[in-house]
Design a protein that fits this description.
By secondary structure, this protein is an alpha/beta fold. The protein has 11 helices and 10 strands.
Length: about 375
């Protein structure tokens, strides 16, 4: 938000435009009397929208509330229901060449880089968007629809390779807890070269339990996986694990990151307190709630689309199968994909690098 500051633009005729964020909640909007409100993107809750509705009542029939949005990144069921009931008028426009020509003009919009928003540009936007996101993200429809594999751009010839990264890399493991059913206990070893503008991902190996296992069995298998690459636990830069998994039998087969750390300490023959790196838990912190899955999936998709940015070793047979078959469902394929997402937490949620722009002053 604006950290307590509410920017305003006041015109010579006395009109005022005030800028607020939905993060400030409905309370910050209480008491205002306005003529028009414009939302850019959906409000976080219907409560905020309802409060703004009350603010334009004083204007009577001339009071207007408008929302210009893509129905994603916030719960929109309440908004859709209001549109279907006729309480809100829905003006829906798909991304077509005709709809990017401003009223009163004959030519389409042009971006700052000179790109003309024509059919060729639209095709490029669609190609760069995950297939299941296209209906909402590109065309503003209400629902995302997954048709076939989520990773439609995964190609054997482009991505399956014995190639190894050159130069300095960071090593990471992602662990998805489970009891072995449907590949549910999984660990993935990756190397990441983030020396360029975008990180290059190398999926080196996988550990998939084919039956119910104990944390000690998992720790031993993960160490075997590391040794195949002349590595040990201390060579890793990051280890990310899922939240505690209670098991199909309740607490009896429960697994957690703490259990795995203790098991790895026993495997290495060192005190628990000396394990480095430790296993950090995913799905916590800012922007790591329900939307973290989609964010991670998009991250992987973009890596696959960029030439030379996603590599997977042929030995990762389960991962390859899951990348080809997963349809965004909570099934056996998802567990292995989750382990891959977890291994990439450091980069998926990294802050964008600030670009320093050189400015010349004077002659």
């Amino acid at each position: 938000g604006f950290r307590g500051v509410n920017p305003a633009c006041q015109f010579l005729n006395g009109s005022i435009i005030r800028i607020k964020t939905t993060q400030q909640g409905g309370l910050s909007l209480a008491g205002s009397t306005i003529d028009c409100a414009l939302f850019d993107e959906p409000p976080k809750t219907s409560r905020v929208y309802g409060e703004v509705q009350k603010r334009v009542m004083r204007a009577g029939r001339d009071g207007v509330v408008m929302l210009c949005l893509t129905p994603v990144n916030a719960p929109c069921d309440w908004l859709r229901e209001a549109c279907e009931e006729g309480l809100i008028t829905d003006h829906h426009y798909r991304l077509t060449p005709a709809n990017v020509i401003p009223v009163g003009y004959s030519e389409p919009l042009t971006l700052r880089d000179g790109s003309v928003c024509d059919q060729k540009w639209i095709d490029r936007v669609v190609a760069e968007t995950m297939s299941w996101e296209v209906p909402v993200v590109v065309h503003g429809e209400w629902e995302m629809k997954s048709v076939g594999s989520v990773f439609a751009d995964f190609r054997d010839a482009d991505h399956i390779t014995h190639d190894l990264p050159k130069g300095q890399v960071q090593l990471s493991i992602g662990i998805d807890h489970g009891d072995g059913a449907n590949f549910s206990q999984a660990a993935v070893l990756i190397a990441v070269d983030d020396s360029g503008e975008y990180p290059k991902i190398y999926v080196l190996d996988e550990y998939i339990s084919e039956s119910t296992t104990t944390p000690d069995m998992d720790a031993a298998s993960i160490r075997v996986m590391l040794r195949r690459h002349q590595l040990d636990w201390a060579d890793l830069d990051h280890v990310w694990g899922d939240r505690a998994y209670p098991g199909r039998r309740g607490g009896a087969s429960k697994k957690s990151n703490q259990d795995m750390i203790h098991a790895m300490a026993r495997e290495l023959g060192v005190p628990y307190s000396r394990i480095r790196p430790t296993i950090r838990t995913v799905k916590r912190g800012r922007n790591r709630g329900a939307g973290s899955v989609h964010r991670g999936v998009r991250f992987l998709h973009y890596a696959m689309v960029r030439p030379g940015h996603f590599h997977i070793n042929p030995r990762c047979v389960h991962m390859i199968e899951c990348l080809k078959r997963w349809e965004l469902k909570d099934d056996g394929y998802k567990h292995v994909i989750d382990a891959l997402r977890y291994s990439l937490q450091t980069w998926i949620f990294a802050r964008r690098r600030q670009q320093v722009q050189a400015v010349r002053i004077g002659a």
